[in-house]
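Mods, move this if it's the wrong board.
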Amino acid sequence: PNPFNPTTRIQFSMPASAHVRLDIYNTLGQRIKTLTDQQMQAGAHSLLWNGTNDSGETVSNGIYYYRLNSDIGVLTKKMLFLR
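Not the wrong board. Structure tokens:
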């Protein structure tokens, strides 16, 4: 759901096996969390983000972006976190 609290599920589908990295960024463009950085098989995938940064601290309310980077392409989407 968008907005979300306390977690959101990021779903995506891979047409072929590829290396995938999914990062969360704040509005300043700073990477705050890496959800995955690994090889993934073709098919549907789902990752959860619980509104924390890489240090485990809960982020503040606001707009965040996730960037899905793979051998196949790049996808960026906006999310709204409200506590």
